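Before relying on records like the one below, remember that each one covers exactly one chain. Contacts with other chains, cofactors or solvent are not represented anywhere in the record.
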Amino acid sequence: MRGDEPGRRPVAAGEPKLRRAARAIWPVLQQTAAAALAWLIAVRLVSHHQPFFAPIAALVGLNASLGQRGANAVRLVVGVIVGIVAGELAFATTGGGVGTLALATFTAMMVAQLIDGARIVIAQAGVSAVLIAALGDPAQGPQRLVDALIGTGVALVFSQLVFAPNPLRLLRRSESTVLTGLADGLRSAANALEQEDEQEDEQAAEQALSQLRSLRDKLGDLSSVRKASDRIVRHSIPWRSAKAPVVHERESAGHLDLLVGSCLMLARTALATTAHQRRSLASMVRRLAHAIAELADQPGDRATRQHATEQALVLGRQVVAEGAAVPAESPLGAACVAARLASIDVMIFAGVEPALALGAVHTTVDDLRVADPPRSPRRHWHRLSGWHWPSGWHWPSGWHWPRQWIRRWLRPRRHAAGRRPPPAPGPTAVHADPGPQAQPSSE
């Protein structure tokens, strides 16, 4: 399970192995619980003595990046069905042996290639065909199919209902990864612009451009996360009501492509200027990197977006004022154009309308406010609050704690008897800054 897959937290170079293992504990626990539950269902409810397909299907279905586990589970079932059918047909035709195994495997993998083409479908089709042909008991094919359906059902419940990931959090985590890499690349470009030694200057410039070009992989991961977030709000029950904020954040995340492109153009054009011009551009690039780094720390915070917008606005106006007398066809003029575009792209990503951001750098408008970023939605489990146990059903003796816990979970939270509800906040307490905590009096 890689830490740099889309939807997962980025793994920094040189990060301790124990820390990476600690981050993987929660997904591994989910897969372990799903495998155990699938085995129990197959043994206790369906009475299968060796339901190895059930836990395997649950494990493989959840062994994907967040937001893609549901599709992974469905593809697994398709592969298992293709493999079982191909194995049984090959066994009925040739009667067993190496030829049966080869025929079943080849047929299953080719059919899976025609149906879907995903690696998990092809692999599961081949594995299922091998097991059917190797064990030599085609009568167990339907039983293995039932086991696979059980495991897939458990994986779908875990991925789409119980442990469905927060789509907005996935988007902002991926945005933060791209913005962090972009800020690091711009800092490297600023360092290269400040170099005085020619040989060190060339090495630093190449390193900075290489860092910025490598962001294409992170942008590809962001594109995958955008698609995954759309699947989550469409197929996951707890997050269906979060479609509007997720769509808004997906559009904002899509603008990072333009921001990365304008910053790469800024670095290339700035590094092509003369030594005297580079020193004046280095401060500009560093200030832009600082604004982007602030966005990377808290991309969903409105105050952070507002401050980054103000920094980008000051930078854009400075570029317009100082670049008015610079020939547009010169390297310095191209760098000024790129810096202006980068500052505008920062403001648009932060939540400013494109027309306002474009006009603000040429006017004296001081009150440029960003829109409120979408808030992270919550799971809507309250829809289950009207559900009741069947009439006539009673808890076994001694099961008081599970009964109380489940009842509290299924109904809206209420204050315990004898406790006073907290006072309602005043009209000015909603957006008030708490400020420093008052020290207790010595009296």
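The chain has two domains: 17-162, 167-360.
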